[in-house]
Amino acid sequence: YGCLYLLFEAYPVVFTEGHHLNLGQSGLVFLPLPIGGIISVILYILFVNPRYAKKVEQYATAPVPPEARLDVTLFAAPLFAISFFWFAWTSYPSIPLWAPLMAGIPLGISISWIFLSLLNYIIDAYLIAAASALSANTIVRSCFGAGFPLFATQMYEKLGPQWASTLLGCIAVIMIPIPFVLIKYGTKLRAKSKFA
């Protein structure tokens, strides 16, 4: 959420200032994000959910391990980082605005997949305490979403859109291992918790 909300501050810099769009046109540049979200939901319904349904049948009498929810994040986490680099290095005013604009589609896809899979993972991991776990997750996520935009303008002015967005991409790259670690060590980590 921090990276996403900080990127929202970058859009006016890139599209309104860099490409000289008016306010109405600048509002339209956000459309690729929900389009990516819609695509991700369709793909989730068509491909990801049926794979999970097969795992439910496979485990039949036992619950499916929560880590099974994270399969899609193995694709979404790198896609999230790639989207930031794509946006960063196509955000020059000399490059047609369609290039940075289209980076919003994979960004929307990756955000939706990460969000859906991690929320389902939290629910499956905590079961009875899921409401509390989701609340804690929402608070932390919202703090990052509220905090990052506070320094966004200064960051984009000092670094420029290319390097500021590259920094966000680097933060996203640092987060790529999270689903891989949870898939590999999730069972051991949950065994140490009295709530999971």
Automatic annotation (TrEMBL):
The protein's matches in SUPFAM superfamilies, at most eight in alphabetical order, are given as: MFS general substrate transporter
Transmembrane spans: 28-47, 68-89, 95-119, 126-151, 163-183
Q: What is its main location?
A: membrane
Query: Does this UniProt record's set of keywords contain Transmembrane helix?
Result: yes
Topologically, how does it sit relative to the membrane? Multi-pass membrane protein
Q: Which GO terms describe its molecular function?
A: transmembrane transporter activity
The highest taxon in the source lineage is: Eukaryota
- Where is it localised? Membrane
Question: Could you name the Gene Ontology cellular component terms for this entry?
Answer: plasma membrane
Q: Which residues form a coiled coil?
A: none
Q: What keyword terms does UniProt attach to this protein?
A: Membrane, Transmembrane, Transmembrane helix
Its protein name is MFS general substrate transporter
What are the leading ranks of the lineage? Eukaryota, Fungi, Dikarya, Basidiomycota, Agaricomycotina
